[in-house]
Amino acid sequence: MDSRIEAALRHGQVIDITTTGRLTGHPRRIEIVFHHLDGRIWITGLPRADRTRAWLRNLEANPRLTFHFKGELEADLPARARIVLDPVERRSILGRVARLWRQDVDAMVAHSPLIEVEIEGLTGDAVARGSLAGV
Q: Over the stretch 46-59, which tens digit does the pLDDT of each residue have?
């Protein structure tokens, strides 16, 4: 894997993800931010109590996604999502993100989406170490 991608995976930034529409089966691409915390990759969003986001519903139906770096570093990485529902795990991760974003932790735990992203062929330890060779 390109060393620039290895480095980019260790730092949260704005990316795009493509999911598969749960009703249409068509690709759906959105812009979103990922976070690298403790060697793992997370995607969340601001709290929103009125409805579940379409991209999260798409991932409930099909956890495969494409993780797109854009700008100077363009790369498309096949990945899989794990939707995080456990309240203790949500508070652990979203508490850290809430501090970064200056958001209310309780609101984020209650109303923010949270997924862990696993890049195909890559373990979280490899991201943390910067050892992504062979991916």
A: 898 888 899 999 99
Quote the pLDDT of residue 132: 40
Q: Which of 46, 44, 131 is nearest to 82 (CA)?
A: 44
User: Rounded distance, CA 18 to CA 79, Å?
Assistant: 10
Reported for 24-30, long-range contacts at CB under 8 A and 24+ positions apart, including other chains, are 28/54, 28/55, 28/58, 29/68, 30/55
- Highest CATH level, class, for 3-128: mainly beta
Listed by start position, the domains of the chain span 3-128
Please check whether residue 107 is in contact with residue 121, taking contact to mean a CB–CB distance below 8 angstroms.
no
What CA–CA distance (Å, rounded) separates 82 from 135? Answer: 20
pTM over 0.90: no
Output the CA torsion 56→130→74→22 (10° steps).
-20
Residue 125: per-residue pLDDT: 52
Q: Rounded distance, CA 84 to CA 93, Å?
A: 10
